[in-house]
Amino acid sequence: MLGSSLVEALRRGVEAFQELGIEYALVGGVAATVRGRLRSTRDCDVLVVASRQDLSALKAELRERGFSHLDRADRHVIEDVVLYRFWFPVEESGFSLSLDVQAGGSDYHREVVLRATAETFGAVELQVASREDLILLKLLAWRPIDRADAIDLAALGSPSLDHRYLHKRAEQLGIVHRLEELLREGQGEI
Asked: Which CATH architecture has domain 1-129?
């Protein structure tokens, strides 16, 4: 039940991004699942690089598609990202799933969106952040679940990872020490 609602929330979100021409990349737990790290989640995390005007239009479009959003309660500034949380009702259970739209404006955020590739999740075609960028985003967040995701994503993609990109970006983002710790915790080298 929750899985089909998650897919439906993603479908509606992706349609809104496409309708407005907003480039995006799926990040977070669902993206990790698409890239091979199976785990449960109750939210969909999406990174966008968009103007204020585009974000205003996106809020209206998502509301039209069944999401709720209260600007005062569902908008959070976290470092260089503004998080907009949209709630999608799961009728059968009385719960809601969240579509967390992370509006970033840094060069790195733009690169994550540009490097994303088209993948399919539950019959929805969407843009998913690369395995390398997911690892880096997980290292930036650095919560226990993110560390576990990063270790598994690195192990799953070890032979095909772009090692040079990972190290270069980790250095630029100031997280080389976290990447090195990840390597010590994981099973091998990146």
From this structure: 2-Layer Sandwich (3.30)
